[in-house]
Each structure stands twice: as C-alpha cells, then as structure tokens.
Design goal:
Pfam families: CREG_beta-barrel, DUF2470. This protein has 371 residues and is α+β, with helices and mostly antiparallel strands. The chain is 32% helix and 26% strand. The longest helix is centred in the first third of the chain and has 19 residues.
Length: 371
C-alpha cells in the first residue's frame, strides 16, 4: 500500500490496489490538483498527479534543524525528496510526462519549508522533558509477564500514576497485589509511555521510555521519592500503606519522542536527562486562552507579518519560551505553523510584552505581503 499524507491541502489520500480512485477524499485545491471534477477518474490520471500532491505536502512535514542526537525524522524532510523533474524514480510514472505544478503553490510551499526549517523552537529533548513533566501524571507501563503467570511470555500493560524527579526519571508507587510490581521484581526491563496533557489523537505528542525499573533503595532515596510522588499526586495517601513500594526507571536504554504527525525520532537518553522542562508552561494556557478568545485577529496578523501567509483562522495551540505553534486555516488547507518570538521569553511579564510588541508590529502588515 502507498500512502500519501497531504497535510498542505488538508487531505489524506490513501491509494492501494483495493481502493477505488472514486473513494479518495477530495476537496478544495486538492480536488483540483487531483483532477476531480465531481466524478471518478482513471487510476493512471490520479497517479500522474501524485507528485504534485506530495510536493504540496512537503513543507508541513519538514522538521526543524536540530543536533544529530535529537534529529526528528520526517516522511518528507526537504524539497529535494519531492522534485518532479522527469528524471525517473520517486513518484514519477515511467513513460508519462512530469506533472505541471502550480507556480503559486510552489512559491508558497518553498517559503513555508524554509520558515519551518529555521524557526526557533525547543530542542527535541526539551520538548520531551516538558511533555513528561507537565503531563497528567498518568502513563502506560509495559512489563514482561513472569513464568508463574498464566500469561507467561506475553507483554503486559497497565495505566499507572507517576512523577518525575529532578533528572526527569519516572517514579512510581506499586502495591504488592499488582501484577506489574511482581513482574518488575523478577525482570526490571520495561517500557513506559506518556502522552501530552491535552492528547486527543496521533497529531499530539507522546514520549516512550525503554529501560529498567527497579525498587528505590530504602532510606534517604525513598524519602525523596515519596516527597516527589506526593507533590505530583497529593491525594494518593495509600502510598504509605505497608504493601506499597517506590520504583524508579534508573536505567534508560531508549527514549522515543513523537511530537505529532511526521515528527518523530529517538533521543539520546543523556540528552533527555540533561534537558529542562520549559519554564513558560505554568502560564502558557492562560496566555493562549486569552489570545484565542479575544485576539484571534491579532494572531492572524502576526502570521501574515512574520511568516507571509494570509490565513482565515489562527489558533495558538502551544506556547514555550521561544515561540508559539499556531493552527491555521487558509486557502491551502489547514496545519500547524511555528511562529517564533522576537526574543526569548523569561517570565509571564516578558511574554506579555513580546506578544504586545509583535501585535503592534503586525497591525500594519500590508496586503502586498499576502500569499
């Protein structure tokens, strides 16, 4: 099966031997590009236009520049992978002329690709640390079922509460009656997955750890683990019951971060542990809610002024010390675009000052800047 994720035009096109072309999802510019005029079309016609559709999607899928140890993969990391110059290979069809591209679309996608590549943002390790620290405090633990279990040899999973220490290591409190505690006592190898606080679907972030989870040694370390866990879950009084013990992922073999659609990769555990959660998160939601409720036009103006894209809708969906992610709707479809701050935000007062300055600078954005 060949899947073409057409984010630029707000369409998901799935092409397979068992999927009739008439069942493709067509609307807006995507419909025109694929040649749909209200009825079905030939498979050959659809295939000939796929390079144009794939190229249009490329700029949404390009990850930001980052260090080699934190580089996130993308299903289309650069314009190079979407050229349709008739040189063979790629998505071209042998014997068919290369598809013509809309010059305006090419200009827009090139501009946005360059913007997304250079836009200031947190490193992948910082994003992962921030996601885990400010999550709901719940995650999915995966253990290896032991020989004494009827499920011996099968992986087992459970939703559990957790906290993170100053290094970002997950801390847990398990009862003796829980099967995952018994599994870990016999085999500490485990996985643990945490989703972002507002996780709604696969376009939202998550972090998966693979490593060893062991019982925290009695004494000072247990006292510190208890304080950390109860600070995150103050109502979990049962951690003081006699059959509960604290566990911690002391060894991390792998940290996998998925920041959303087409933005994923493996982090070096040391980079994750050395990173710090973004300090803006305690007030980020309040700032975003205020802007989205009362100043959405100002956000649209900022996208036009600083990025050069005219949009019909703009909603701030995340904010950190270096900028914002804005969900936009335009004539090209919908996606998320990075809107960097003009300088680093160090506290809530500075954050407000930066947004006010950017709003004022954008108020006079001329129509000539529209694309």
């Amino acid at each position: 099966m060949t899947r073409v994720f057409q984010r630029a035009l707000g369409t998901l096109v799935v092409l397979s031997s068992s999927t009739p072309v008439a069942s493709f999802m067509h609307h807006g510019p995507a419909s025109r590009m694929m040649g749909n005029k209200g009825g079905s079309q030939s498979l050959g016609s659809a295939i000939r236009r796929l390079p144009q559709v794939v190229s249009a999607a490329a700029f949404w899928l390009s990850p930001p520049a980052s260090s080699s140890s934190q580089r996130l993969s993308s299903s289309s990391s650069s314009a190079e992978g979407t050229k349709t110059e008739g040189k063979g290979g790629g998505h071209s069809v042998p014997g068919q002329a290369p598809a013509e591209q809309d010059p305006e679309l090419v200009r827009v996608q090139t501009m946005l690709m360059e913007h997304q590549k250079t836009a200031a943002r947190l490193t992948a390790a910082e994003e992962a640390r921030t996601l885990v620290y400010y999550s709901t405090g719940l995650g999915v633990l995966g253990t290896n079922s032991q020989a004494s279990s009827p499920l011996a040899g099968y992986p087992a999973s459970a939703m559990v509460g957790f906290a993170v220490d100053e290094k970002g290591r997950p801390i847990f409190s398990f009862s003796s009656i829980s099967t995952h505690k018994q599994d870990l006592l016999k085999d500490p190898r485990a996985s643990f997955t945490v989703a972002s606080k507002d996780f709604k679907g696969l376009d939202d972030g998550r972090v998966s750890f693979v490593g060893e989870i062991k019982k925290v040694p009695e004494g000072e370390e247990t006292t510190k683990a208890r304080e950390t866990y109860l600070a995150r879950h103050p109502g979990h009084f049962w951690v003081d019951f006699g059959d509960f013990d604290f566990f911690r992922m002391d060894t991390m073999a792998a940290v996998r971060y998925n920041g959303g659609f087409a933005r994923f990769g493996a982090l070096e555990p040391a980079d994750y542990l050395d990173a710090a959660p973004d300090a803006c998160q305690p007030y980020a939601a309040a700032v975003m809610n205020h802007m989205n409720a009362d100043h959405s036009d100002a956000t649209k103006a900022m996208v036009l002024h600083y990025i050069g894209l005219e949009v019909d809708k703009a909603e701030i969906v995340s904010l950190d010390r270096l900028g914002m992610m804005v969900k936009v709707e335009s004539k090209w479809g919908g996606s998320k675009i990075r809107l960097p701050f003009t300088r680093e935000c160090t506290d809530r007062k500075v954050c407000k000052e930066i947004i006010v300055e950017m709003t004022q600078a954008s108020a006079g954005a001329s129509a000539g800047a529209k694309v």
